[in-house]
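dumping this here so i dont lose it again. seq + smiles for NAP
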Amino acid sequence: MDTRCTAKRLDASEQALLNGGLKGNPLETTEAWVLKEGPKTRSTNPDIGLSCGKFVIPPLDDDEALLEPLFGAWEGNYGHALDRSPIDICVARGEPAVVLGNCGVVRVLRPPKAPGELKPGDICIQTGNAVADRFGYMVKAHAYDARNTMGVLAKRTKARARQLIRLGPDHQVASLPQWAAFSLRYVTAWANWRVAHGSFRLQLPVETFPEAFPVWAWGGGVAYAELQLAAHFGARCTLISSKASRLAEAEAAGFAAVDRRSFSDLDYDPKAYKMSDGYRERYRAAERAFLEVVAQGTGGEGASIFIDNIGGPVFRASLKALAREGVLTTAGWKCGMNVSYMRAMQCIARQTFVHTHYASFEEGRQAVRYAVEHEWLPPSSALSKTYAWHDIGQLSLDFNADRVDSYFPIFAINPL
Ligand SMILES: NC(=O)c1ccc[n+]([C@@H]2O[C@H](COP(=O)([O-])OP(=O)(O)OC[C@H]3O[C@@H](n4cnc5c(N)ncnc54)[C@H](OP(=O)(O)O)[C@@H]3O)[C@@H](O)[C@H]2O)c1
């Protein structure tokens, strides 16, 4: 299968017309990896789901800059978009073609018409909050469910000034690929940790619980970033992973590492649990084994904070692994968004659930400031090799098949 960026061209004028017309502006086109409207085939057809070709940049609003993306980090939303699940974003946006890529590192080509500080040549972190509520918290994600937004999988793209955090001399503590890895997962982790840790400390202030508190997490780039942050706040961190390389990376970061392959039947399916005795027995044995590991790692008390961005198959076990007054915190639903629990149990145990979605603009800025001041960064050793522009199709396949060892799969778009 040819996964390289080849001459399979979209018809630009057709795409522009389909995407809502040109509104009198001259055509500005770019080369892009494009998700086109279509059937939900990726799970049955091992196709990359993207085509590389010409794309018409939608007309820029006065507060939007024309940008040249430099680096991006592949992540869950690309997969969710390609799987057209939980939503088909072409259908949700009413657009026949979408350029993915919520976040990354970009260079300003043309600053917004509206007055501001951005100049041509500025290098910025592009954050992913496209549509916010009146408090600044994200409602819709850039290059995902927000209409008329365009991501970093293009040689040229656009974003609003408020989404851009200019990188200056202070930011040289990290390379541009590290900031690309930071732009989505670390910002999400910051916003989630702020609420999770705040909730935990509201019930158990330092005077009540002065010792290091256990924070556990299922693997993932957001969870890795959040554990690093938790350690800064006095937590004893444990990452649960299924890959030797990620377990080694966790240990290098100072976390305890738990290999989830030793309880691989921990895959809760409520229907099978009800219907099949064999399934129920296997599941229960795996859950017991998991809870025994948590008990050993937490002095029998359970986790003070459990980061579960996985959902469905592990939610029940995550909840059982939680200490009294514990916080179960999430920003994701990688393997299932429907969960159920018995409210009385959680009330009696005074447990708190935290749900966040990326970050407010201010939280994005806070995260970057904290990162610079406290060296809270993705280690360069934890980044993948950098995939070249024409190999992005291959990256899509590798990520989907879980062949990328790193939690931070980096790709380059334009030369520096
Ligand atoms: N709401 C938001 O704003 C927001 C922001 C960022 C991410 N998210 C979402 O949050 C989720 C996690 O994101 P991420 O970037 O951290 O993920 P990621 O880096 O892509 O990693 C996902 C990891 O989940 C683990 N995993 C997969 N299936 C599992 C299972 N059945 N049981 C236990 N662990 C399992 C695997 O870890 P191991 O290989 O180590 O076992 C896998 O590498 C995704 O769905 C993403 O879309 C939401």
